[in-house]
């Protein structure tokens, strides 16, 4: 097995795509209508919903570099939890639809 990191292996196999992905990522997280800290807090929330451990670690660290506080990070995680749970609540009507006679 290769001793290279997974990103290096990907880059070696699909260099142009890897570089395009990295450029896209840098572009997305630059200040714009939303500042970089807000974008990283959104990424923290999304990473928790998608349950990506590497994304959680990377975006929590990036949010901290953008001076997000621990409280802001935790609030973003709670927003993610509410949104994830909200999907189950919103789809509860399907349970009742299944019980209703056709």
Architecture overview:
This protein is an all-alpha fold. It has helices at about 5-15, 15-30, 35-50, 55-65, 70-90, 90-100. α3 (about 35-50) packs antiparallel against α4 and α3 (about 35-50) packs across α5 (about 70-90). It is extended, with a radius of gyration of 19 Å. The mean pLDDT is about 95.
Report the oligomer: single chain
Distance between the termini: 57 Å
Q: Give a short account of the largest sheet.
A: none
What structural category characterises the helix and strand content? Answer: mainly alpha
Principal-axis shape:
extended
Count helical runs.
Answer: 6
Overall helicity: over 70%
Number of strands: 0
Give the low-confidence spans: none
How large a portion of the residues is in β-strands, by DSSP E? under 5%
Query: pLDDT average, as an integer?
Result: 93
Element pattern in H and E? HHHHHH
Overall radius of gyration: 19 Å
């Amino acid at each position: 097995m290769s001793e290279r990191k997974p990103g290096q292996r990907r880059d070696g196999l699909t260099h142009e795509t890897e570089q395009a992905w990295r450029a896209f990522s840098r572009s997305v997280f630059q200040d714009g209508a939303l500042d970089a800290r807000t974008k990283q807090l959104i990424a923290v929330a999304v990473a928790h919903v998608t349950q990506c451990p590497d994304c959680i670690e990377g975006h929590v660290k990036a949010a901290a570099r953008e001076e997000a506080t621990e409280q802001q990070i935790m609030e973003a995680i709670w927003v993610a939890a509410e949104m994830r749970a909200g999907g189950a609540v919103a789809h509860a009507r399907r349970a009742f639809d299944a019980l209703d006679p056709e």
